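Protocol step 4 of 5: obtain the predicted structure for the target chain.
Materials: sequence only (see below). No template structures provided, no constraints applied. The aim of this step is simply to have a reference model before the mutagenesis design in step 5. Sequence pasted as it appears in the construct record:
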Amino acid sequence: MRRISLAAALATLAVAAPAFAQSTATERAAAKGVLDQLDALQAKLAPTAMAEKLVAKKDPEREKLLTRVEASWKGGMQDLSDWIGKHPETGWKEFKSVDTLTKVLKAQGYSIEMGVADLKTAFVASWDSPAGTNGPTLGLIAEYDALRGTQVDFHGDQHNAQSPVAMAAAQGLMQFMSEKKIPGRIKIYGTPAEEVGPPAKVIMWKAGVFKGADIMIRSHGIGGQTSRTRAGFGSCCLNINEVKFIFKGRPSHQMSSWNGRNALEAAVMFYTAVDHIRSSLRPEVSVQGVIPEGGIAPNVVPDRAVVDYYIRYPDEVYLAHVDSMMVHAAKGAAMATGTTVEIDRGGGEYRDGVSLGTLEELMFAYVKKFGAIRVNNEPQRPSGYEETGWMARDVPGVGVTAASSNFSNHTYEMTADNYSELGHGAFLIDAKTEAAILYDFLTDATFRTSVQTEFKTLAALFDQYLAGLRAAYKDEIGR
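Step 4 output (C-alpha cells):
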C-alpha cells in the first residue's frame, strides 16, 4: 500500500518535470516559497556529495559489519524469509508469522512486547547496548502480512522478506555495538496489516509506540526499478480517506414496499450522485467505490446498504473538500429516500510523509554500491518512507527500494521471485543498506546532525505548505 503533495510540486524543481510527478498548478503556486527554501536547504546540505563521501570512505569496521549482515542473512534469515513467504497470512491474522519471528528475536537477545497498541499481531522487539542506552535509538520496521488473492493468499508484495531483512541488519549492528561499547538501543517494530485498513502504523503512532526512535528504516520489495526520491513531502499513492457510508432504512415485503424505506435505493442514489459531482471537482481527484452490501433477498426491501469509497487527492487540503462534497451527497440521498446514513471512517486516513535528501541519497549510493539492478538515476517525486505518513512526520527515516523482481508488485509472478536468485540477492542488498545507513547515523556525528537539521526544517516547512494551500483554495472551497 502506499499515499501533501509538495510531493508533486517538488518534482517540478527541475525545469522539465518528470511525467510521473503528481502536481497541480495550485500546488506549485502555493508551495513556491516552500520550494525555494527547500532548494536552498538541499544546496547547503549537499546530500549527494555527503553520501558519496560516506560510501567511499575506507572503514574496516563497516566492512566487518556488512560481512556479519551477510552471514546472518545466509545463515538463517533467508530461510526465514522463504518460510514466511510459503505460509502467507493476511492482515490481522499473522499469528504464525509473529510467533515465529518473536521466537527468533528472543533467541537473538531481544525483549519482546506483544500486542502493542492493542493490536494482537503487532510487537516491539528491543535490545539495549551493554554500554548503556545513552545513544541513538535505531528503529527498523518489520512487516509480514500477505495479500488477499482471488486464487490463494500470497506474498506478491514481498512482505515476507521485510522482517528477516531488518533482523539481519540489526544482528550485525548488535555485534558491532557490543564489541565497540557503543551506547544506544535497537528497536524492531512488528507492524501488521499493511495491505488492509485501518492502517496499523497509524494506530501504533497514535498510541505512542514509535516515540523515542531517532531514526527509522524499512525495506520494501519493488519490481520496476532501483530509485530514490527527492526531498520534500509526499507519498506514492496520493492522500487517501477510506470511508464507508452506511445507509439504514426499514424492511418490508416488496409487495408492500411503501411500508419500507429502501437503503439500497439510497445507496444507489448516492453512488450516482458522486458521479454527477465529478465535473465540479478537480481532474486529479480519484474516487473509487463499491457497494459491498445491498440487501438479502429481492423480495425484501433492503434496510441496510453500504458504499465503500477510497477518496484520493495529491494534497490533503483539497481532499477534505472532496470528502465534504461526498458527505453532503450522502446526506441528500438519505433525506430523499427517508433513510439515515452513518459515516464510518474506520478504514483510516493516509497522509504524506517526509523525504530527507540526506537519507535518500545515502540509501541510493549504498544500494548501487552493493549491486542493485535497473537503476534509475532520476530522482522521483517525494514519497515518504512509509505509506501511512503520520509517523514519518515525527521520526526521520528512509525506505530501501532495490529492484527485487522482474514483475510488478501485487502479482503472483512477483511471489515466485521471493525464492529466486534475484529476490534473495536484492533482499541481501536491502539488509546491507539498512545496516550501513544506521551505522553511519550511529558513528558519524556530522551526518547525524545533518539528518536532524533537515528533518526539523522540513517539519516547519510542512506547516507553511499547508497554510499556503488553504489560502490558495479559499475562494474555491469556501474555507
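Step 4 remarks: The first strand starts at residue 111 and ends at 114. The chain has two domains: 29-235+352-463, 239-350.
Proceed to step 5.
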